[in-house]
Design brief:
With 262 residues, the chain is of the alpha+beta class. It has 2 domains: 38-155, Beta Barrel (OB fold (Dihydrolipoamide Acetyltransferase, E2P)), CATH 2.40.50.90; 159-261, Immunoglobulin-like (Sandwich). Helices cover 24% and strands 34% of the residues.
Length: 262
């Protein structure tokens, strides 16, 4: 019997295609793991609003920063996250760096197609946080924050203080590490216990400071002596990052007065 190379080639191609079709899902998952850096696991413990234990390892959620213990909404953020993912299988998608300085994994947590990190922002239990610069997820986090502001819930609830409509951000200078606030009203505003915060953990609390009508105050990183128009943010070498950051100003009840991102 004469060997037919053409017929053999057709049969071989058919068999290869058959194998690919039968094993498509398996191959697809394998290729996805090669080209997309992710892992799966069961959420065993929620430590706080932005930290978990998965597969006996600590995981710090990327793109968000939630209140610390003792701060308003700390407990609510933790409970919210527990209700969303505790005991469930999730995917951890990694960013530019897989681990932080504390050897925690860094990731975006997904259940199906839902980004849980984004959901935390949208419900007002954290602010967006990109210290290493914006990545492909930044737009969805920014949008979630704007949705939260529209709903005016939790960390997105606006201040009802009379001075909340008076105090405006006049300037944020990254190079000189200073911000300038102006009182646009015709009456003085006492900013005692008002708070400035960046995207991360850095806080500045106004002491018993009175911002006079139609006047400005500079808050500058440094260790000099305060004056009537310059206050110093001590204990920090820098606050505002060149790769992008956000300023949040809150009143003495923790309600949002203004925010500005760059």
């Amino acid at each position: 019997m004469k060997f037919n190379k053409k017929y053999f080639g057709i049969v071989l191609i058919f068999l290869i295609l058959l194998v690919l079709v039968v094993n498509y899902n398996y191959l697809n998952r394998g290729l996805e793991k090669i080209f997309i850096n992710y892992e799966t696991g069961i959420v065993e413990r929620v430590i706080d609003g932005d930290t978990l234990e998965i597969n006996n390892e600590s995981v710090r959620l990327l793109g968000i920063n939630c209140p610390e213990k003792g701060e308003e909404y700390y407990t609510e953020a933790k409970v919210f996250l527990e209700n969303e993912i505790l005991g469930k299988e999730v995917r951890i998608y990694f960013g530019k760096e897989k681990y932080d300085l504390y050897k925690r994994k860094l990731g975006y947590i997904f259940i199906g197609k839902e980004n849980i990190n984004v959901k935390i922002i949208e419900n007002g239990f954290g602010n967006y946080y990109f210290p290493s610069g914006k990545d492909q997820y930044y737009a969805s986090f920014y949008s979630a924050w704007e949705n939260c502001l529209e709903k005016k819930i939790n960390l997105c609830e606006f201040s009802k203080d009379d001075c909340a409509n008076c105090i405006k951000l006049k300037d944020l200078n990254v190079e000189n590490q200073k911000v300038v606030f102006e009182n646009l009203c015709n009456f003085d505003c006492n900013l005692k216990n008002w708070n400035i915060k960046d995207e991360g953990r850095k806080h500045f609390k106004f002491l018993d400071f009175n911002l006079r009508a139609r006047k400005s105050v500079i808050v500058k990183v440094g260790n000099n002596t305060n004056s009537n128009d310059i206050l110093y943010w001590t204990g920090e070498t820098y606050v505002w990052t060149k790769s992008g950051d956000t300023l949040f100003l809150r009143d003495d009840e923790g309600k949002l007065v203004l925010w500005y991102g760059y």
